Amino acid sequence: MVTKHQFTSRTKARKRAADVVFEADQRGMGSNPEVLRDLLRERKVITAALTPLPDYSIRIIEGVAQELRRIDTLIDDHADVAGLDRIPAVDLAVMRVAVWEMLANQEDVPAVIAIDEAISIVKSISTDASPNFVNAVLDAVRKEIHSPAWTRSRVHEDGIYDEDSAESDMSAMNDAEELSFEDFAADIAAPEMPVESADGLASDADMEGDTRSDEVIADATGDDHNEPEDVDIESSEGEQKRYPTLADITAADLAELDELLDEY
Q1: pLDDT tens, 153-177?
Q2: Burial class of residue 260 (count of CB atoms within 10 Å of its CB; 0-12, 13-18, 19+)
Q3: Which of 56, 161, 199, 237 is spaced 20 to 30 A from 175 at the CA atom?
């Protein structure tokens, strides 16, 4: 059973605005705000009600048309349904009005008041389940609007939300990836660790091959036999110590390098 509520003049203006938004949706508005604007022009002249549209109703409808895409994105993000078409049309119209008030008229109407008004309207014209659903969605929208992430979004000088700029900022942040351990180690070691062929390890020119011949090892070490890879040979005077390349570093080498980096 639907319970009737005593509406204030502002509440009536919100309901009249929701009626027009609902009618535009039934005409196939979707995400096209021009349908709502055309209907508003008609309702300014011809209306089924005994009185013309209140000024606040007109202001709400114009605001919803201007911010329709942003409003619908917020509702869709927080309504636990598979798309706006799954939300009862009456509830969607009322929530669009309330979200506009939270976005563009919060100095005049606090968010909690906008939510309470929306709940009062759906109690009188929608289903018994609507008040809880509308309250949950609008409260989640309120929290997002007042979160720091939302306030950092780009806004044009004329006050219109710049979604493309915000998406670009997020894309730039996602592109800034952290270096892997190996990349970080290479960046630090590269300027101070010249690589020369020694101890059976391949030089940068030899890294293209998967295996190394005995001749290459002999040339690198100056011996006629292969030196074991784990044998350390001290550098002679005037020679710089040879460090392994990333292709030759084992798990044990990485652990040792990690300790060196900690000390560095």
Answers
A1: 444 444 444 555 545 544 544 444 4
A2: exposed
A3: 161
Residue 205, in any domain of the structure: no
Which domain, by its residues, includes 27?
Answer: 9-149
Q: What's 39's domain CATH number?
A: 1.10.940.10
pLDDT at residue 49, as a whole number: 74
Contact between 123 and 5 (Cβ < 8 Å):
yes
Q: Report the share of the chain in percent with pLDDT over 70.
A: 57
The burial class, CB within 10 Å (0-12 / 13-18 / 19+), for 203 is: middle
**Residues 29-67: pLDDT tens digits?**
988 999 999 999 999 888 777 788 999 999 999 999 999
Each residue's pLDDT tens digit, 186-209: 555 555 444 444 444 444 444 444
Q: How many domains does one find in the chain?
A: 1
Is pLDDT at 220 greater than 70 in this prediction?
no
Contact in structure between 6 and 117 (CB atoms under 8 Å): no
**If you search the block for the tokens 């942040």, which residue do you land on?**
173
User: Which parts of the chain fold into alpha helices (H)?
Assistant: 9-26, 33-45, 55-66, 68-78, 89-104, 111-125, 130-145, 148-151, 163-175, 181-189, 214-221, 251-263
* Domain assignment present for 162: no
pTM for the full model? 0.56
Q: 64 with 92: CB under 8 angstroms?
A: no
Asked if 121 contacts 93 with a C-beta cutoff of 8 angstroms, the reply is no
Residue 45: DSSP 8-state: H
Residues in the chain: 264
